[in-house]
Amino acid sequence: MTKVSIVYFSGTGHTHLMAEAVAAGVNRVEGATAELVRITGDQIVEGRCQNQEALDKLSASDAIVFGSPTYMGGVAAQFKAFIDAASSVWFVQGWKDKIAGGFTHSGSYSGDKQGTLLYLATNAAQHSMIWIGNAEPNDGTVNRLGSYLGVMGQSAVDMSGAPAMLDTGDQKTSELYGERIAIAAQRWKKA
Ligand SMILES: Cc1cc2nc3c(=O)[nH]c(=O)nc-3n(C[C@H](O)[C@H](O)[C@H](O)COP(=O)(O)O)c2cc1C
Question: Using a 6 Å cutoff on CB, does residue 126 contact ligand 1?
């Protein structure tokens, strides 16, 4: 069984919905299974995320997909605290040659989300992982935001307290990306 872990932070639920959609895509691929690993702010002690269980789960996976909302043009502090904690894995290159991917969600159409994806890809490169981009052509619905480095989602910020909703195009793009990651992980394992 090819195992794909999706590690992410989500404050108000949109990135969580993207993570679920990526997982649904992974689970559509025969022989692949997805696990959601959610990072929360209360895991942070003195600025560093304390979640060894998450690190162990990721180390046991064939592929890791990283997800964070875009906060101030980059990853959320809660997610960065986790990434910094994963430097313990970097020291032993524990994620070397695993398949990697990433996604983000923002309030504005641009919102400088590219900065978030660039950071996620840079982190994967530091871990000597194999980055998989988004291969879906922009047809106005799927990949409507035209992002190929990873998947972008967007919804206007809603302060009403209503439950988070995902754009249907972003949902489908995330699912297709999950499929692509799972298939890439299977091919990479065979090689
Ligand atoms: C601290 C903070 C910073 C934010 N910075 C940006 C930003 O740079 N660009 C943007 O488009 N939206 C920004 N937003 C809006 C979030 O990206 C948006 O609400 C996103 O959907 C949150 O994802 P979540 O529901 O998974 O928490 C910011 C929100 C917060 C709370």
Answer: no
